[in-house]
Amino acid sequence: MLKPQDSETRDARLLDGIWSFSAGPSPGARPWTAPLAGGRDAAVPASYNDLFTDDATRMHVGWVWYQREIRIPAGWAGQRIVVRVDAATHRGRVYLGDDLVAEHIGGYTPFEADITDLVEAGGTARLTIGVDNELTNETIPPGFLQEDENGAVHQKYRHDFFNYAGLARHVRLVATPKERVTDVTIVTEEASGSAATVSYRVDTAGGSAVRVAIVDEDGRDVAHGDGAAGTLQLSEPRLWNPGEGNLYDLRVELLADDGELVDVYRQPFGVRTVEVRGAEFLINGEPFYFRGFGKHEDSAVRGKGHDDALLVHDFALMEWSGANSFRTSHYPYAEEVLDYADKHGMVVIDETAAVGLNLGLGGGVHGQAGEPAFSPTMFNERTRDAHAQAIRELVARDKNHPSVVLWSIANEPEAVEPAARDYFEPLAALTRELDPTRPIAYVNELRASFHNDAIVDLFDVICLNRYYGWYVDNANLSAAETRLERELRGWEETHGKPIIIAEYGADTLAGLHSVHVQSWTEEYQAELLDMYHRVFDRVPAVVGEQVWNFADFQTSPGIIRVDGNKKGVFTRDRRPKRAAHLLRSRWATAPTRNAAPEPGDHA
């Protein structure tokens, strides 16, 4: 789905701001047919959970409703008019007046409602958006509802971050020509410093002729083509590289028979290639070493609400630390995040919202599952269908971002069960079919090791979450170091694929210090990271280290978390802990682009 933009033929208006809001009732009560009863103010974009002061709203289960009046610009007569919702967590319905005009399942990818036939240019209408946060064993991510002894229903889920919900990203009113560009796909076939071959495909609604041009950062047309698909040649291209966010635009024009301009769309892209060769991860033919973080879209008050100021500050902190990459753990992030990564040369592992497909893991604590995870009564064919749709929507949205170099289709699923293979094999095949240009991965947790992982051969890169020294061998870094190196060498020798440590770290209370080896102190977090780095530097197949987590984040209420997960090297309000300075001393002196730190470069 194309991101809305302004052009010679298109217009996009943000509908962000204060909306009327009501928690409940269910759609059967038809709350959208009149001004919301008991409605109060809520900000968009933002999760609704932390905007107010009552627990009933914060922990609400089910539908909420957002409503506002919209005005259609008078100049939009004759245009196709849509409402575009960037995300509704986890299910959305859009109503114009009394009419249901769109419905979408999946909380982190966009959808549109065509309202052309229901509005008039210059007129107004009542726009209502319902959002449902319920999770089941057949949703992505999964969850379940639990009723307590007093009859109250609670949402339970298997992911270790708070189930923020609502309209956390932009809502837009968009006008396009009725005959228009509907999709653009751009692939770098070959690239070097002297020449590049770029292929493109343009999908359209209507029969207009297609003309394209590649436009450089100085606004010059540097290549031209005609037709809905083809290849273009670039001489001396400016490659997109880690730390070098060189971008081009593919300007797509639709032309009527008389040559009149029908539609214009500009798709940014970067010229770069990605390849896995043996145990190396290559960008533009050069070995690349991932230095960075697992992150979350999470901040006080906003929850998962997108905020441009926070986006800029987070990237500034990552750049200060010397990071060159991050993973969108554990869901697709707002499109603006990837746009910014493209511009700044930040490498991204792009992940679906398939987190929690595991019955033997909770809050990082390993246990024994009482039933199989992949079965007709738990994560079944309908779960897999929802998972497949999440992959389709992720690839369709993000395929043109040069920053995205690896698709991660799941985080910490149950990978030991034989039935996991039946579940994941078609999903891995689907991801390759949708995008044969990027490697694919899933992120593995401890119980699936190199000798019993049932699905690792389906993927190109081994991504491991490991917590030796924290959940295993807590406060015994000597034993943890031995275990970690033994396991990494086992993966290296058994599978011969590149290894990215997608998570490693320790919970740390900012300001807690000790001269002794003591969990939760800033010293222990830094010493644990330092131990991991020594091991990474000794294992050639390790091609990346992404600390868990960039910043402290909110989790569901419970006794194993005190006001959230504290594994951040920055606090939730982005103040550095001691570990942040350790990472800076290791990463900021490393080469900008590719190589791993030299052994001994750690603090």
UniProtKB/TrEMBL annotation:
Signal peptide: none annotated. Keywords: Glycosidase, Hydrolase. SUPFAM superfamilies: (Trans)glycosidases (SSF51445), beta-Galactosidase/glucuronidase domain (SSF49303), Galactose-binding domain-like (SSF49785). Its EC number is 3.2.1.31. Residues 14-177 form the Glycosyl hydrolases family 2 sugar binding domain. InterPro entries: Beta-gal/glucu_dom_sf, Galactose-bd-like_sf, GH, Glyco_hydro_2, Glyco_hydro_2_AS, Glyco_hydro_2_cat, Glyco_hydro_2_CS, Glyco_hydro_2_N. Residues 182-272 form the Glycoside hydrolase family 2 immunoglobulin-like beta-sandwich domain. The keyword Glycoprotein does not apply. One of its GO terms (molecular function) is beta-glucuronidase activity. It holds the Pfam family Glyco_hydro_2_N. Residues 274-588 form the Glycoside hydrolase family 2 catalytic domain. GO terms for biological process: carbohydrate metabolic process; glucuronoside catabolic process. It is an enzyme of class 3 (hydrolase). It comes from the Bacteria. Belongs to the glycosyl hydrolase 2 family. PANTHER family: BETA-GLUCURONIDASE. This is Beta-glucuronidase.
